[in-house]
Amino acid sequence: MNILVCVKQVPDTAEIHMDPSTNTLVRTGVPSIVNPFDKNALEAAVRLREQHGGSVTTITMGPLQATQALRECYALGADRMVLLTDRRFGGADTYATSYVLAQAAKALGPFDLILCGKQAIDGDTAQVGPMIAEHLHLPQLTYACEISIEDTTVQVVQECDNDHICLRAQLPAVLTVTKSINEPRLPNVMRRLQANRTEPDTFTADDLPGLDFSCIGLSGSPTKVRKTFIPVHEKQTHIIDGTIPADAVSVLFSLLDTAKISLTAR
Amino acid sequence: MKHQNVWVFLEVLHSKLRPVGLELLGQGRRLADQLGEKLVGVILDPNAEALATEAMAYGPDELLIVQDEHLAQYHTDTFTTVLYRLVRQYRPEVFMIGATDIGRDLSPRLACRLKTGLTADCTELDVDDKRIVLWTRPALGGNLMATNICPNTKPQMGTVRPNVFRIPSPDPSRTCTILHECLYPEEQHSLTAVEKIIPILTNSTVNLTEAEIIISGGRGMKDPENFSLLQELADLTGGCVGASRAAVDAGWISPVHQVGQTGKTVCPRIYIACGISGAIQHLIGMSTSDTIIAINSDPKAPIFHVADYGIVGDLFQILPALTQALRARKRT
Fold this sequence. Notes:
The structure holds two protein chains of two kinds.
Chain A: E1 2-6, E2 9-11, E3 17-19, E4 24-26, E5 32-34, H1 36-52, E6 55-61, H2 67-75, E7 80-84, H3 94-108, E8 113-117, H4 128-135, E9 140-150, E10 153-160, E11 163-170, E12 173-177, H5 189-196, E13 201-203, E14 224-229, E15 238-241, H6 245-258
Parallel strand pairs in A: 1-6, 1-8, 6-7, 7-13, 8-12, 9-12
Antiparallel strand pairs in A: 2-5, 3-4, 9-10, 10-11
Chain B: E1 6-9, E2 12-13, E3 16-17, H1 19-35, E4 39-44, H2 48-55, E5 62-66, H3 76-90, E6 94-98, H4 101-114, E7 118-122, E8 124-127, E9 133-139, E10 144-149, E11 156-160, E12 177-181, E13 192-199, E14 213-217, H5 227-237, E15 240-243, H6 245-249, E16 270-274, H7 280-286, E17 291-296, H8 303-306, E18 309-312, H9 315-331
Parallel strand pairs in B: 1-4, 1-6, 4-5, 5-12, 6-11, 7-11, 14-15, 14-16, 16-17, 17-18
Antiparallel strand pairs in B: 2-3, 8-9, 9-10
């Protein structure tokens, strides 16, 4: 069972906050972490390897600093680290990102399973996993909260719109996992030390055979960011003193009535 | 042939049109009028024709339907293949899909096959003077908004968060053309097989993404028993009970209630946060709600920055007072 786990290094969104005096986002000093959903994917991969044998390769596309995320994955049980790094990959949207990851999967494989987190916490798009599956013409099984392998088939329980759906597909397949699938283990100290002395296998655009350069990076991205802006909160917070609960509640109701807001569903 | 018309995917779940599709018909109408194009709703279902008759009242100019038994259950491959063929055939300029779990499974696969751009989870939509759709979405807990465009490829695609836009008022007298397409035998093929479907909820009222009112509890609830205070108010308002990650991790309430980055993203008309401090992971999941009411004993709690109304006080006194007052108002 050879498994590829795609991970993303993301800013720890819990550490990002607003500077109320300037109304800007404070991002300096925000630590980078492995996207939490990707840690669940890695844990799932390591457990499958423990059951079925094989190897776990962890891959990321990003700047050299993303090595740190790969090393964390190594400490958590990955056998191999692969870094896709090239200035020409920069500015990629989900399409261009998934294309490079898919091309790398072809070059490094064959893999029986490709695992991704359900989504990344910085963009929340949930697009890269399904797009990798499409580039590789593989079945996609999203939002997996349970995975089992039987011979050449994979079965997952999918958390989908308030249902649990049991899905089955032939290997190889692309899966995305939710956080309820497992509780990622803590990094192994020995492996962490080992990771710090190990360099990932690094690939640039020139190292990936048959790469279509028109599909990578900013210029290969069909979507562009036109602008980003801090939303203007026109609403003002009405703070109500709750020392005397009945009074606070009647103040709330009079404010809601003025704004024509009903506390009852239509 | 040039690209034309605005398409809206009308998702069907358990034989019903999902509300987000109807919400998108309202937005699609606006975009189609701005572009001077037709608004087309797309329905794939064994019962598509009856659902199309229902959808007519919400404003489409045309409904494009595929009525086939093989479309009873969503399969990524079948739905992608048939929509890919229809898009190639009809060449829509814009294609909007609800950002439900199914919509987020389907849309990236379809956009990738069409080699076009897809913006996820939009909460604002507009068109510029060059007919480029401006897809605006929140990032980083709603602290930052990003406007994406797809200038060079068609259709311009986006998923739109449920519950952000209102369903247009239906006009039962309205009719429109229904275009019938069939499912080709080779399109029935799917790489995945659905073996079984188990509803997660015994109580179907915990449908947070479509709820109009949500009463949520966090660490300040202190005890699982206290969630009955929230349930009581939820029952009275016709809403659902939500929870922060802290409350779920403490084991006070099932994870299906969780709102936030690792739970559900919700956008109800009213969100009442009780004993929730407002960590960014929680705000990400609820900050686009229409009206936010926060009850917290800590006046410095970040939840008050996103709230429209904040009551600083003891929730164990204020919640019962609120429930009691609402009950009294309903009687009069």
